[in-house]
Structures are given as C-alpha cells and as structure tokens.
Amino acid sequence: MPAILPALIFLVGSAFIPLLKGRARQAYLLAVGLFGLINVLALKVQTSWTTQFIGFEIVLLHADRISLFVGYIFAAIGFFAILYTLHVKDTWHHLLAFWYVGSAMGAVFAGDFLSLYLFWELMAVASAGLIFLNRTEEAKQAGYRYLLMHLIGGAVLIGGIFLNYMQTGSLALGPMAAGLAFNLVLIGVGMNSAFVLLHTWVPDAYPRALFTGSVFMSVYTTKTAVYALVRLAPGWDFIAYMGAAMAVFGVSMALIQGNARKLLSYHIVSQVGYMVAAIGLGGALGINAGLMHLFNHILYKALLFMTIGAVIYRTGQEDLTEMGGVARKMPITTAAAVIAALSIAGSPLFNGFISKAMIFKAAGANLTIELMLELAAVGTFLSFFKFIYFGFFRPNKVNELKVTEAPANMTIAMGITAALCVAVGVAPALFVSYLPFELTAAEAAFYTGSKIAGVLQIMIVSGVLFFLALSVFSPHKRRTYDFDWFYGQIGRGLQLAAEGVSRTNNAVEGATAMITPAIMSLRGPIDRLNAAGSRLLFAVFVDMWLFRPVTLSAGEAKDAAAGAQKQTHTVEDIAKLGEKASELAEQIDRKVIDKMVDGVATIGLKTSQAAGRIDFGIIDRMINGFAAIGLHVSRAAGFFDKNVIDGLVNGVAWFTGYVSRKLRPMQTGDVQSYGMFMVGGAFFVLIFFILIFYGYVNL
Amino acid sequence: MRRGLSLILLTVIIVNLGVASVLAAGGEKGPRRIDTANVVNSTDIKDIEKKEPGAAEKGHATEKKGEKAEEHHPAWMVPGWQAGFALLAVGYFAFAVTVLPRFVAKEEH
To answer: Which is nearest to A581 in space by CA: A535, A629, A532?
Structure first.
C-alpha cells in the first residue's frame, strides 16, 4: 500500500463528517479511525514525504523507529477513543477530535521544525475547541486560559526555532546544542510537557472539557511534547531532575483533590514526569524507557478517563465525595478502572510495571532521582486506592439503585484498552521489540524476584496504611489552588497597572487643559513683575557699586579730585549700561521665559492631541478591525453553510432521489426478473475475478 | 498569602532537592545524549559526541548503565528496603494531605 500522510487521513476525513448522520456517520467515523491505524501500521522505516512551503523544503512524513513507535499508539488510541465517543451527536465534537488526532499525528511524523510547529499550533486550537465545547462559563474561561498558555508557549517555541535556523541554517529536527535557541525551544516544549510551573493548564482545563473530550486530551498534547523532547533534548540533567520534580509534585497535588478528573489530571503531570526523567537520564535505555512509559501511559490514562467518563455519563457525578456504589451495577467499567489503576501504579502483570522497571533501571546510577520516583510511586498507589475505593466501591445506595452499565460502544472501547494494558504487562517482549533501540538481556529481564518483591512491598504497605488511615485520605469537597493563583495575581497586577497608567494619562490631559489657560492669563502680570524685578535688581546693584566704601591715599585723593569731572561721565555710562541690561532682561523674558511657558502649553496640547489620535486612530481602528474581521468571518461561514454545506446536502438528497426514481421501474415484483439480475451480477463478478486471476486487472 | 508562601516553600524544597542532587553527583555524570534525529536500525546508536567533542569525557557509556546501577546503590538498600521507604513515604503523604489543603485549598459545601 502506498504511504499516505497519517495526518491527512484525519484532517481530510473530517470534511465529510458534517454530511453524514446517524449510523452512516458512526460507520464512517470508525472506518476512518481504523484506516488511520492500518495506514500507520503499514508504514515502513525511512518512508518520507517532502514538499515546498513558503520557500522552505518541509518534511511532512519522516518515519523512523521513534516516530513509528509513537505513531502506532497514537493511531490505536485514536481509534479506541473514536469508538468510545461514537454515541456523541455533536458534529463539532467529532470534527475537533479528528483535527486533534490528525494534528498530533502530523507533529509526530514531522521531519522538520516548521512542520512540527504548524501541527503543534493546530493541535492547541483543536484541543482548546474541545474544552469550549462543554459550553459552561467555567469551561469557557478555562479554555481561554488554556489557549493563552499554549499560544505563549508556541510563540516562545517559534522564537527558538527561528533562532536555531539563523544559527544553523537548518530546520532539521534533531538533538540541539546548548544555547538561547535550545532554551527557548525547551520552554515551548516544556509548556506542553507540563514542566512544574508551566503545568497549570492540565488540571485547570482537562476536568472542564466534556468527559468524551477529556479522553482525547489525556492522550495527545503532553505526549507529543514528550516525543519532541526525545527528538530534541535527550540526556540533559536539568530535564531528568525536572521530570522527578514533576512526578513528586503531581502526585502530592493529586492526593488532595476531591474531583476525580482533577486527580487524574494531576497524575498526568506526575506520570509525564516519569517519562521526562527517563529522557533526561538519556542513553538508549533512558529513551526506550521514556517511550515505553509514553506507550503504556496513553493506554491506562485514556482508560482511566474512559471509566470515569462512563460513571459521569450514568450518574452525572465526578466528585469523589459523592461517588461510589457503581461496582456491582457497572462491572465492566469497574473492572477496567481497576486494571487501569493497577497499571498506572506499576503492579506486576500490568503495563506500568514494565516501563517503570525500565525507568528505575535507567535511574539506577542516580540515587536522588530513583528515590524521588519511588516516592511518587508510593503516592500513586495511595491516589488510586482512593480513586477506586471512593469512586467505585464505597457504598452509595442512590447509585446502587439507579445506575446501569455504560453503552456498548464505551464498554467495548474500555475492554480493548484494558486488554492491551494486560497484554503489555503479561507479554512485554511483543511490544518492546518495536522500541527504537535494542534492549540488552539484562534490560529485558522485567520480572525478577527483587523487582516484584520491591513493588509488592510498596503496594502492601501503602494499601494497609491507606485503609488504616482512611479518614486522612478521604476526599473533601474543596477548591484547590495551584501556581495559576500567582499567574492570576500577576494578571490582576498588570490590569491594575494598565488602569493606573490610563487614569494618570487622563488626569494629565485634564490638568494640562485646565492649567494652560491659567498659565496664559498669568503671562501679562508675570511679564510686568519680571521687568520690574529686573529693574529693581539692577538699581540695587548700581547703588551698591556707587556707594561702596573706598579708602584713598594722599596721592589718590588728589587724583580723585582731578578726575571728579571724569567720574561723572563714568556714572552716566553705568546708567546707560543699566538701561541696556534692562532691555536685555526684557528680551530674555520675551524670548526665553515666554517661549518656555508657550512650550509647556504646546507640549500639553500636543500630548492631548496625540493621545486623542492614538485613541481614535489606532485603538478604535483595531477594535473596528476585529469587529469587521469577525463580521466577515461570520458572513463567510454563513455563506459557506448556506451555499456549500446546504448545497452539498441538497445535492446528495437530489442525487439519491434521482437514482431511486430511475431504479424504481426495475422493481417489477417479477421473480424471473430478479433472478435475471442476480445471474447477471454473478456473471459480472465472475468475469471480474477471471480478469484478476489472469492478471488483466491489478488491484 | 499563606497559600502563596506554601507553594513557594514546596517549590523551594523540590528545587533544593534537585540542586543538592546535582551537587552531590558532581562531575561523575555528563551528557548521555545520543543522536535521535533518525533512528533507522534498532542498534543504530550514534553518539552526539560527533557533534560535541569532549562530552564523553564527562559522561559514561549509557548502554551499560543497567549493569552499573546495582553497584551505585548504598549499603542500606538491602532487600526489603522498599517497605521501610513506603512507610516513611505514606507518612509524608499523610502529612501533605493534612497540611497542604490548609494553604492551597478552600472548602466548598
């Protein structure tokens, strides 16, 4: 089969979803999902597809052992999630889910930075759409915050990409050297990987999406970022310690949550921390361990969101303080939840055990990371004892009476995903052979006595202590705060600062408008006062000079008497000098002081005018521009809906009617006629197979 | 305010743990970076050393890390240590779920 771009199957495939309804749509959704999976499974190593885009050669399909390994699980869980959400009637939900899956596949198979970035951003928009789709005020606000954080992350990422391109002249994806470009890319990728401090969007947004949307969201965004870390930054100490910090922080916050989906969201941070730590530890084993955990995490985390979604669907509850009592009435869902919980906790015979064993082996030389991950492992056991007991098994008479098992499509999807969790745990060799690097015999020895004993010790101790201290770990109906509280404060501070600047600007404008006439009216008296003052000052100086004390000798006195006449001239000269000085002072007054006063008034006036121009010329135009864009987009969407979508729907309806009118005469009710048609059809089929058999037709 | 301080405290603890471990590790470990740009064969491990000469002097062969791991474990890690560690860890988490919500959560009724 020729290689088809995996992203295209979902992106192009989405175009036909609005045209179909009911069973036809369900069959189509499943067919596209299955085709997407088969296509990825059929891809060969070193398959590539390049094209030109804005003057760059971009690689839209780059299949190597890393992208294929991630692509397999992305496509598989995409198919299971489509099956799980098959009952959803909202067209937008399916469209956004397809765009989300398609863009994630595009990012994984991207062979250059530009393609990666394009699919990265499309992924952010599609996933934000899944949050908005819940159509509650909380979901809307969380969606905006989610979009804002991802757009900031995307902007930092593209900054790093451009800088890297300027330095290296290449857009090829691969491990980067240290430097500013690397740091920017790391922040951009770290935002999607939920690095501590950049993680707040996960617990904020995931619980607020529709429960069906959460299943898709739990899979793609963070794991695409983990994949990007494998490509760009394997083997960095900072990343290893960040991963360990994420594992501990995530599980600490998860344990205090009362909302089941928020608990699961914090566990995404924690489990992604394991992957990030493994990639940071680096080497073939670290990368294999990180990717294996990514594979397993996608299975059990999607399964956890599926099971809690099924409970929400049947009971409307997702707060652990209210839940419980569903174990008997929803046995398949409960069994799937228990399998997922055992998997995430890393119990033997479940998939989490395999990848965690690999991660601990990779961390073997680094005691700090090993102990931090062990600490997180204990917290994970506690968390999922809490999740399973309070969410499913705790007695709840109301739920026990009214609840029924989830719909068939949900239970089948959960069943297949759970079976895969067990399959990886029981027969890991089948799956680890697809990892990018070959495992040594020591690395592939997962089930050793010491490892099983170690996990069982943690499981038993944490289980016994959990039930002994049940009241300590019991859920509470509470609202928790994270670092986004700080971001909110910073945002509010910026808003206050902007308001302050605006108010100050208005005050200055008002004051200038008031002061200017007052200054102008004071000009005459100030002029006069100034002239009088300068004259008075000059007179005082002259007087002081004329009547200064002088001591003369005899000779000097004689000379002075002789020069008395001359002295008179000197006084007159000084008087003239005084008049000139007075004139000069008046000129200074007119040319300098007056101009300064005029200047201040003019600056005030011009500032006021400039502020007015910015307000009318830029701000108003921007607002009007946005409104115009919104109006045009809305008109275009309306036009598209009316003329294209409606036209297509009407066209299909007309075509169907036309064909049925033409075919109606064939319904004669005559058995012989029908027999003729059947024989004719069989004859054509026979001819067709003969042509294939003799090689005249190649399929 | 208390909420903010506690979050800062938690971050400081985590960052300190990281920094302390980096210092403790000293120069023993270095880059363990292998070329992941295009992995075609499962045994095709190209070291990034080709791009960054000298990195190997700080690092060590990662493929043998699994075997080396056991040697690095301290003496107190005898069989069964996980049970003691889990006991301490549950204590930590019990403390965390009791104390943390006072600072980072608001009860809803």
So the answer is: A535
Angle between helices A367-388 and B2-25 (to 10 degrees): 140
Contact A436, A287 (CB under 8 A): yes
Q: Show residues of chain B in contact with A485, CB under 8 Å.
A: 3-4, 7
Q: How far apart are CA B85 and CA B6, in angstroms?
A: 25
pTM: 0.74
Task: Give the CA distances from residue A381 to residues A278, A300, A345, A378, A523, in Å, rounded to whole numbers and listed in that order.
Answer: 20, 14, 5, 5, 83
Of the candidates B61, B66, B58, the residue with the CA atom closest to the CA atom of residue B47: B61
Give the helix ranges, DSSP H, for A316-435: 331-345, 351-362, 367-388, 397-402, 408-426, 429-432
Is there a contact between A277 and A243 (Cβ–Cβ < 8 Å)?
yes
When CB atoms are compared, the residue of B41, B52, B90 closest to A378 is B90
pLDDT tens, residue by residue, A396-450? 999 888 899 999 999 999 999 999 999 999 999 999 999 999 999 999 999 999 8
Residue A480 · residue B104 · CB < 8 Å:
yes
Which has more pLDDT, A100 or B11?
A: A100
B7, B33, B85: residue with CB nearest A175? B33
Cβ <8 Å between B68 and A364: yes
Complex confidence, ipTM: 0.70
Contact B43/A438, CB-based, under 8 Å? Answer: yes
**Residue of B36, B47, B58 to mutate, interface with A, max A Cβ within 10 Å:** B36
